[in-house]
Amino acid sequence: MGSKMKLALAVLCFASLSVSVARAGDYFWDDFYPNFGDWMLLYPGDETDSGKIVNLCMDNSTGSGFRSKYPYLFGRLGMKIKLPAGDSSGVVSSFYMASRYEKWSELDFEFLGNWTHEPVVLQTNVFSEGIGQREQRITLWFDPSEDYHFYGILWNQKLILFLVDDTVIRVFHRSTDLGIPYLDYQPMYMYSSIWAGEDWATCGGTRKTDWSMAPFTASYTDFETNGCVVHPDYPDLSPCYQNVTTSYVYGNNAVSQLSEKQVQDLKTVQYNYLIYDYCTDVERNPTPPAECAINWPQYFSG
Ligand SMILES: *[C@@H]1O[C@H](CO)[C@@H](O)[C@H](O)[C@H]1NC(C)=O
Ligand SMILES: *[C@@H]1O[C@H](CO)[C@@H](O)[C@H](O)[C@H]1NC(C)=O
Ligand SMILES: *[C@@H]1O[C@H](CO)[C@@H](O)[C@H](O)[C@H]1NC(C)=O
What we know:
Distance between the termini: 63 Å
Strand content: 25-35%
Largest sheet: 8 strands, antiparallel
Oligomer: single chain
Bound molecules: 2-acetamido-2-deoxy-beta-D-glucopyranose
Number of helices: 6
């Protein structure tokens, strides 16, 4: 290979690391690798489609998990997940985004397993500068162990949407004017895991895991990494703030307001599926945290 060619390739590779828009449905190992319990990761499928699905298993010795190769700043990031079937009390399956600085950013989807036919609870949380305690819990309108559903975030300079399929279940608006740090300067990695949470997860920890049902398996597929990739060693964030012509997801032209349908989604979730909200937990928060007033529709749609 001539040196000009090499140079051209190097430039290409670097450019694609700085701002790359990956396709949905990539192979697992294009964008991810196991980060714990790697002997408990399974890749069902034959030679041609092995890697389209990854199963995370847990037994009484360990859970397992994976992580994205690179961190992202903004994007539409998520994957389809099918939760463990049957009695999954105390089993926590997750997809989350997290940065690696001391005062970190984090966005969580945690699925709290339950007895067979009893509702799995989805807990979400937002950490900015290391401070979380913004838990919301909902039940879902389908059985998440029966089939794959998309769980992901749309994250840009103005807002963060938590998505379940095409439904917005939560929004976190930029509210730096209220003194709340926004998640706009720390790139975050994507993580997924299955782990033991029998001390707290199901019915407040009173329902323990039935280990005779192990291994528990959460299955992940259709990885969506449509985001601004940041090289961990050369964290030039500026491309992520600029307008990216092919996408309204992030950049100068990013969506900053919810559509009418999305506002309606939030109302439906709030009235029919919300079972815990830190905004209304008066024991923990005698006055609701400031951002609550801009993140629920009754406040922002009049
Ligand atoms: C874990 O499960 C295996 C298989 O069911 C069992 O033989 C073993 O004793 C268990 N270990 C612990 C520490 O419970
Ligand atoms: C598990 O099922 C019980 C009974 O239906 C329900 O009260 C609880 O909220 C469910 N989820 C969790 C995480 O405890
Ligand atoms: C980027 O945004 C600027 C200012 O909003 C605008 O003038 C310019 O036309 C945009 N460029 C593209 C390629 O969208």
